Amino acid sequence: MSVSGRGTRKSGSRGRRRSGIVVVAILILVLLLLAIWYLLAGRVPPPTPPTPPGPLPPSAQPAHCPDVQVISVPGTWESSATDDPHDPSSNPASLMLNVSRPLQEMFSPQRADVYTVPYVAQFSNPVAFPPDGQESYNNSRAAGTAATMDVIERRHAECPLTTYLLTGFSQGAVIAGDVAARIGAGDGPVSSELVLGVGLIADGRRDPAAAPTIGPPVVGVGAELSLDGLKLPGITMTGARPGGFGSLTDRVVQICAPSDGICDAPVEALKPGNWLSSAARLGEYYNNPAHAQYNSFVVDGNGTTATQWVTNWAAGKIDEAPTPAHE
């Protein structure tokens, strides 16, 4: 009997060791899969080095150069990397078309060239299984930022006297705002003197202290400020833009509809002391179409909608822009 007991104990010990080895192996596999997930989803890339200052601008520029370059950056799922920047059609319902097309009708391409930035414009669900096949927010945002910087740099290289007006919606507003912040800090593709204005609709990094908000009062902040520090595979909440918009502060306007969780999220929602107040606002976002209704969202007493306001504001900036000499 004692021999049998020892055998049973040894067998049980071996079983526990095998179970322990299996558990450790599973944990290692899970950690390895998570590491691969994070690498594939992408991280927020570091800013590219600023373009070194060039020589003083000439007194005239080539005849084909526009007086004003309008840069429009569409929101998530409202663009594609292969879209025609002067006649975008990947999403006929894209909100920014309600700004870009009226401007194209108002002004000749010589006075104002309206360029819609083509980029992937996706936002993958990080917990979708199987994966949803979408590009991650970090990668999409990085691609959009690179494309926006590139078109400005290329235009400035051939047209040094052209001035710029930047607009964007949702993810596109984050991109346009980030590029504007770099320009305002002195490390962008052009000097701040060449920027006429920046109009942002539903900016995920909306900071009430960084620029005025047009329309009804909004109590919250951009989702990236609300969830500052949160990191999921392919989704990094980067918080407020350091230094705001710098020297462009007085040329930036923001529009945000109350209860739009992208730009009107609870302040410091992840702070333990704010959990209850943040949770109380969750009901506002459930089945709330505010983010998709800026074409009808009224921002003043005259019944002007968000897209109409940005169009009128941009047209005024273009009207007042200098007319450079052409060679």
Give me a quick take on this structure.
The protein has 327 residues and is α/β, with parallel strands linked by helices. Helices cover 35% and strands 11% of the residues.
Topology:
Blueprint: H1 2-41, E1 68-73, H2 97-106, E2 112-116, H3 137-158, E3 163-169, H4 171-184, E4 195-201, E5 213-214, H5 223-226, E6 231-232, E7 235-236, E8 252-255, H6 275-280, H7 282-285, H8 306-320
Helix pairs in contact: 2-8, 3-4
Report on this model:
The chain has 327 residues and is an alpha/beta fold. The chain folds into 2 domains: 1-41; 63-320, Alpha/Beta hydrolase fold, catalytic domain (Rossmann fold, 3-Layer(aba) Sandwich), CATH 3.40.50. The protein is 35% helix and 11% strand. The chain has helices at residues 2-41, 97-106, 137-158, 171-184, 223-226, 275-280, 282-285, 306-320; strands at residues 68-73, 112-116, 163-169, 195-201, 213-214, 231-232, 235-236, 252-255. The strands form 2 sheets. The chain has a 6-stranded parallel sheet with strand order 2-1-3-4-8-5, sandwiched between helices. A two-stranded antiparallel ribbon has the order 6-7. α2 (97-106) runs parallel beside α8 (306-320) and α3 (137-158) crosses α4 (171-184). The longest helix has 40 residues, at 2-41. The mean pLDDT is 89.
